[in-house]
Amino acid sequence: MTSVRHDWTAEQAVALFNQPFNDLLFDAQTVHRNTFPPNTVQISTLLSIKTGACPEDCKYCPQSAHYKTGLEVERLLPVEQVVAAASAAKARGATRFCMGGAWRSPRARDLEPLAEMISEVKALGLETCLTVGMLDADQADRLQEAGLDYYNHNIDTSPEYYDEVITTRDFSERIETLNNVRNAGLKVCSGGIVGMGESRKDRASMLAVLANLPEHPESVPINRLVQVPGTPMHGQPEVDPLEFVRTIAVARIMLPRSVVRLSAGRTEMSDELQALCFLAGANSIFYGDKLLTTQNPAQQADMELLARLGMTAGTPVPVQAG
Ligand code: SAM
Ligand code: DTB
Ligand code: SF4
Description:
This protein is α/β, with parallel strands linked by helices. The chain has helices spanning 10-17, 21-35, 79-91, 111-123, 137-146, 171-183, 200-211, 241-254, 271-279, 299-309, and strands at 40-50, 96-101, 127-131, 150-152, 187-189, 192-194, 219-224, 259-262, 284-286, 312-313. The chain has ten helices and ten strands. Strands 1, 2, 3, 4, 5, 6, 7, 8, 9 and 10 form a ten-stranded parallel β-sheet that branches. S-adenosylmethionine binds at residues 60-61, 63, 100, 102-103, 131-133, 153-154, 156, 193, 223, 225-226, 228, 264, 292.
């Protein structure tokens, strides 16, 4: 049985990264098979429910009001429109519907419409996920009562590199939101972005923070930076694709019971690179032609890729801990 640890040092995580590629992938695939059905992939569909004009300055993000990205700003969508999109996602085979809003944190008056969306999407028989920025304890409780299953709040990068990426909120505030979400009884979805000019040590340190949380997040999205013209991160040298695969593999080893999502950035990846990510232990993807504001692979192409790999969409349930 693979052990679940909460005492990783960044150095130990770097040592995992530093292994020969084949050794690392073999270990990751072994951990994967000890915990999960090897060929089941969880699929979530995203919808941007409030787009752009965000006061935060995340240097990667097309939705920040600090950068000119030509994005069309949209207020909070009406509940019916969100439910219709969720229903269409379900008909296409998604099992979870993730609603994303470009906020620093939701305002008091936004909470009831959000709660209504969650209840109605849940009533369709979908798992619900929300990501709308920082939450306090009361907000997290209210959303849990409404039927929310998962809350997504990424740490994005290592504590050491964080200030290079965001200045309008602290790393510690991210952790505080994750604690509020966990204490409300919600499932936690938290991961980060690779390819923002961070070092291998930063990638290792980010994964150590996630693994050292009191409970591992149930879901860990690993995004590859989507470079959007107008954002400060645009023009960043691309991260070595094999380093991205290593990041997935190290996440799989350090977070053995978490569903690891091969998240944003798949449009720019070859089928072979995605296959390597699955071999490294990724067992979730975003499914649908759009992420929040940028492109995702076409649904038909994803279904064909999964079929070619002999993978099926479903819920990868970890085996009972021994
Ligand atoms: N505003 C909320 C927040 O930041 O918590 C929720 C939405 S925000 C868009 C969710 C996450 O998407 C970010 O934390 C970041 O990890 C990811 N993301 C945003 N822009 C991205 C990009 N260009 N490439 C890769 N990931 C991105
Ligand atoms: C996550 O880790 N990635 C998703 C989701 N959580 C909310 C968002 C990716 C956004 C990519 C850029 C865009 O489409 O705006
Ligand atoms: Fe706003 Fe979230 Fe984008 Fe940061 S990542 S600018 S908080 S929408």
